[in-house]
């Protein structure tokens, strides 16, 4: 019960890392507001957590829309009185050479991956300043640290998340607001399987990806959820502006 009586808001909580983290936080005693662009998926996360005895509110939210992000945070405070932890997890990917990436493509990536995080941080900090502080955890990526062909737009947005995290950590540390990032490697989520399915042989694509990971497997959503849990607890009280890489060793080779 390391998050007993804490109130958390998790974006992209309808599947993958977001759902795993929502379940993890709930098991540790947190009240969870699970938001996802897919309202049905958010509702399913709520049902899973409540069935297990936890407390959760599922909301359909498009994080690229500032008004909707404001509404989610307002609903959190209205229902539960405060916001202790924000986990900015929602994200999308896109595989295209830069020569084929349209302005609309870039706007979609920026909207979810960077603006969504920016809006979440902005309005969470506004709320946390009325309390005794709070914790923000942003999902960046191993591709905020290293390059990879066909991911120029994605790399740019995730690099922005990492830069934003560092800037905010210095700006608000004195107000007892901790801001950190997690940089996952390839994780076994619906998003990565969508990418595998773009190839002629999805199984071969998955095998090739695993071959780049010294740990010899894709990450599990729960692997990232446990890192988020560490950052959300008092164990990480002196951790500010960190970029914790959880990639099975992929970026070291």
Distinctive features:
253 residues; single chain; NAD(P)-bd_dom_sf; Sc_DH/Rdtase_CS; alpha/beta; seven-stranded parallel sheet; Rossmann fold; oxidoreductase activity; SDR family oxidoreductase
Overall number of structural domains:
2
Q: Return residue spans where pLDDT drops below 50 for at least 5 consecutive residues.
A: none
Shape call: globular
Helix content: 40-55%
Strand order of the largest sheet: 3-2-1-4-5-6-7
Please tally the β strands and state the result: 7
Main CATH class of the largest domain: Alpha Beta
Structural category is: alpha/beta
| Count of individual helical segments | 8
- What oligomeric state do the depicted chains represent? single chain
Give the amount of beta strand, in percent.
Answer: 15-25%
Give me the CATH superfamily of the largest domain: NAD(P)-binding Rossmann-like Domain
InterPro entries: NAD(P)-bd_dom_sf (IPR036291), Sc_DH/Rdtase_CS (IPR020904), SDR_fam (IPR002347)
Pfam families: adh_short_C2
Protein name: SDR family oxidoreductase
Organism: Adonisia turfae CCMR0081
Any overview of this molecule?
- Helices cover 45% and strands 15% of the residues.
- It has 253 residues and is α/β, with parallel strands linked by helices.
- It folds into 2 domains: 5-183 and 220-242, Rossmann fold, CATH 3.40.50.720; 186-217, no CATH class.
- The protein has a 7-stranded parallel beta sheet, with helices on both faces.
- Helix 3 (66-80) packs parallel to helix 4.
- The relative contact order is 0.14.
């Amino acid at each position: 019960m390391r998050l007993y009586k804490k109130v958390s808001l998790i974006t992209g909580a309808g599947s993958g890392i977001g759902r795993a983290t929502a379940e993890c936080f709930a098991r540790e005693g947190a009240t969870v507001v699970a938001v996802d662009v897919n309202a049905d998926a958010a509702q399913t996360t709520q049902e899973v957590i409540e069935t297990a005895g936890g407390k959760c509110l599922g909301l359909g939210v498009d994080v690229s829309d500032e008004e909707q992000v404001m509404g989610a945070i307002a609903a959190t405070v209205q229902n539960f009185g405060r916001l202790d932890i924000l986990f900015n997890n929602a994200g999308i990917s896109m595989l295209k050479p830069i020569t084929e990436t349209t302005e609309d493509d870039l706007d979609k990536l920026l909207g979810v991956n960077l603006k969504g995080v920016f809006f979440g941080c902005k309005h969470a900090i506004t709320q946390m300043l009325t309390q005794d502080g709070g914790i923000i955890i942003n999902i960046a990526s191993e591709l905020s640290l290293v390059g990879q062909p066909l991911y120029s737009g994605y790399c740019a947005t995730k690099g922005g998340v990492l830069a934003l995290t560092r800037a905010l950590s210095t700006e608000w540390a004195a107000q007892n607001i901790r801001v950190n990032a997690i940089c996952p490697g390839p994780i076994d989520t619906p998003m990565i399987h969508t990418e595998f399915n773009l190839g002629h042989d999805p199984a071969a694509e998955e095998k090739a990806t695993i071959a780049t990971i010294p740990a010899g497997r894709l990450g599990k959503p729960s692997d990232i959820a446990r890192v988020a849990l560490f950052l959300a607890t008092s164990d990480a009280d002196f951790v500010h502006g960190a970029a914790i890489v959880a990639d099975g060793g992929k970026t070291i080779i």
